[in-house]
Amino acid sequence: MTATPLLETRALTKEFRGFRAVSEVDLTVERGTVHALVGPNGAGKTTLFNLLTGFLTPSSGAVVFDGRDITGLAPEQIAPLGIARSFQITSLFEAMTLREHLELALASPTGMGRQWWRSVSRLATFRDRAPHLLDRVGLADRADAPASSLAYGQKRALELAIALALDPKLLLLDEPTAGMGIEDVDRTIALVKELAEGRTVVFVDHNMHVVGSLADRVTVLQSGQVLAEGSYEQVRADERVITAYLGAAHE
Ligand SMILES: Nc1ncnc2c1ncn2[C@@H]1O[C@H](COP(=O)(O)OP(=O)(O)OP(=O)(O)O)[C@@H](O)[C@H]1O
After folding, report:
1. Which of 93, 139, 192, 201 has CA 20 to 30 A from 8's CA?
2. E strands, 17-165, where?
3. What pLDDT does 251 receive?
4. Is pLDDT above 90 for 46?
C-alpha cells in the first residue's frame, strides 16, 4: 500500500498552562477507514478533535491532512479542505426547519456555499442537496418541520446531515451515540456505517458496542498519550487497556 494516509499527527501536543492535555500524539488514519478514539474521561479526545479542526492551536507537533501541513490553520481554512465535524452538544436552531438547517450549512462560507451560489446553473443542484442529505439520514419526511419537533436521536441524525453537507473527505464524530437509548444506538451504528462508505471517519465514543461494531482501527488515549492502537480485538485484549479503561468499564 503506497497511498499516503488521509490524516497524520506528528508528536502533536497541547499544553494548557503547563498541563499536557495531548502529549506527543502520533496518529495515522488511513483513507477509507473508520477509526475510533477511545479512552477514559480527560484522556484528551476532545482536545485532539479541537486540534484537528483548528479550534485549538497546537503547542507543538504537526497535523498533516491529505498530504498538506495544516498545523495552525483556522477552522474556516480547514473545513473547506474537507474536514467536517459533528458536535457532541446539540447545536441546532429550534425554530428553523430541517431544510433550512441544511441550506444554511450548504451556503456557509466554510462549506461549498459560495461556489454554488455564484453559479446560477448549479443553483438547482444546490437546492436538491438539502432533501437528498435529509433522505440519507432518514429524515426526508420531516424537511419542513422545525428542529424543535425532533426526538433526540433525530436531532443527532440532523447534525450528521449538516456535517455531510460539506461532503467531507474526513468526517469527525464526537460521541455520535451519547445519551441515546439502545434502539437509537443501533440505528446510529447502521447510519454511520452507511455514511462511511467511500469516506474516512474518525469518531469518539465511550460505548464499546459502538466501537466494536464500527471501527476498523482503534486508538486508545490515556492522560493525553497513545496507550495502544490496533483492531478492536487487539486493543480489548491489551492488558494496559484493560487496566486503564476496559477493565473499569466492564466491572
Ligand atoms: N481549555 C482548557 N484549559 C485547561 N485544561 C483543559 C482545557 N481543555 C481541556 N483541558 C483538560 O485537558 C484534559 C483532557 O480533556 P479532554 O476534554 O480533551 O478529554 P476527553 O478525553 O475528551 O474527556 P471526556 O471523555 O470526558 O470528554 C482534561 O484534564 C481537561 O481538564
Report:
1. 192
2. 19-29, 34-38, 60-65, 68-69, 83-86
3. 45
4. yes
